[in-house]
Specification:
Blueprint (H helix, E strand, L loop, with lengths): L17 H5 L1 H12 L4 H9 L7 H28 L3
Helix pairs in contact: 2-4, 3-4
Protein backbone atom coordinates (compact mmCIF):
# COMPACT_ATOMS: atom_id res chain seq x y z
CA UNK A 1 0.00 0.00 0.00
CA UNK A 2 1.37 3.41 -0.83
CA UNK A 3 1.04 6.58 1.20
CA UNK A 4 -1.44 8.25 -1.14
CA UNK A 5 -4.04 5.50 -0.90
CA UNK A 6 -5.13 6.30 2.66
CA UNK A 7 -6.00 9.31 4.79
CA UNK A 8 -4.36 10.10 8.11
CA UNK A 9 -7.73 9.32 9.69
CA UNK A 10 -10.71 7.52 8.21
CA UNK A 11 -13.80 9.70 7.86
CA UNK A 12 -15.91 9.66 11.01
CA UNK A 13 -19.40 8.52 10.22
CA UNK A 14 -22.17 6.54 11.87
CA UNK A 15 -22.67 4.80 8.54
CA UNK A 16 -20.47 2.85 6.17
CA UNK A 17 -18.47 5.17 3.91
CA UNK A 18 -16.90 4.74 0.50
CA UNK A 19 -13.55 4.97 2.30
CA UNK A 20 -14.54 2.03 4.51
CA UNK A 21 -15.52 -0.01 1.47
CA UNK A 22 -12.25 0.78 -0.26
CA UNK A 23 -10.18 -0.11 2.82
CA UNK A 24 -11.88 -3.26 4.11
CA UNK A 25 -8.85 -5.39 3.35
CA UNK A 26 -6.66 -2.96 5.30
CA UNK A 27 -9.10 -3.06 8.22
CA UNK A 28 -9.03 -6.86 8.25
CA UNK A 29 -5.25 -6.91 8.13
CA UNK A 30 -5.09 -4.42 11.03
CA UNK A 31 -7.42 -6.58 13.09
CA UNK A 32 -5.32 -9.67 12.28
CA UNK A 33 -2.13 -7.85 13.23
CA UNK A 34 -3.64 -6.75 16.55
CA UNK A 35 -4.89 -10.28 17.26
CA UNK A 36 -1.47 -11.70 16.42
CA UNK A 37 0.24 -9.29 18.82
CA UNK A 38 2.05 -7.18 16.23
CA UNK A 39 3.31 -3.86 17.51
CA UNK A 40 1.74 -0.74 16.06
CA UNK A 41 5.16 0.12 14.57
CA UNK A 42 5.31 -3.17 12.70
CA UNK A 43 1.71 -2.85 11.50
CA UNK A 44 2.11 0.72 10.27
CA UNK A 45 5.32 -0.20 8.49
CA UNK A 46 3.92 -3.27 6.74
CA UNK A 47 0.35 -2.14 6.08
CA UNK A 48 0.81 1.57 5.41
CA UNK A 49 4.38 1.59 4.13
CA UNK A 50 5.39 4.20 6.72
CA UNK A 51 8.57 4.39 8.74
CA UNK A 52 7.34 4.98 12.30
CA UNK A 53 10.74 6.38 13.30
CA UNK A 54 10.44 9.33 10.89
CA UNK A 55 7.18 10.71 12.31
CA UNK A 56 6.08 8.53 15.22
CA UNK A 57 3.14 10.72 16.26
CA UNK A 58 1.59 10.72 12.79
CA UNK A 59 2.30 7.02 12.26
CA UNK A 60 0.67 6.15 15.60
CA UNK A 61 -2.34 8.36 14.83
CA UNK A 62 -2.79 6.70 11.43
CA UNK A 63 -2.54 3.24 12.94
CA UNK A 64 -4.80 3.89 15.90
CA UNK A 65 -7.52 5.71 13.96
CA UNK A 66 -7.70 3.02 11.28
CA UNK A 67 -7.69 0.24 13.87
CA UNK A 68 -10.51 2.00 15.73
CA UNK A 69 -12.51 2.22 12.50
CA UNK A 70 -11.78 -1.46 11.80
CA UNK A 71 -13.16 -2.30 15.22
CA UNK A 72 -16.20 -0.11 14.53
CA UNK A 73 -16.76 -2.15 11.37
CA UNK A 74 -16.88 -5.36 13.43
CA UNK A 75 -19.49 -3.88 15.75
CA UNK A 76 -21.63 -1.74 13.45
CA UNK A 77 -20.49 -1.49 9.83
CA UNK A 78 -20.86 -5.17 9.10
CA UNK A 79 -24.63 -4.86 9.50
CA UNK A 80 -24.84 -2.71 6.39
CA UNK A 81 -22.78 -5.21 4.45
CA UNK A 82 -24.88 -8.10 5.68
CA UNK A 83 -28.06 -6.48 4.35
CA UNK A 84 -26.70 -5.52 0.94
CA UNK A 85 -27.61 -7.56 -2.06
CA UNK A 86 -24.80 -8.82 -4.26
Amino acid sequence: MNQTSFLDQPPESATLTDYDRAHMKLYLRLLDAATDGATWQEAVSVLFGLDPDLDPERARRIHDSHLARARWMTEHGYRVLAHERP
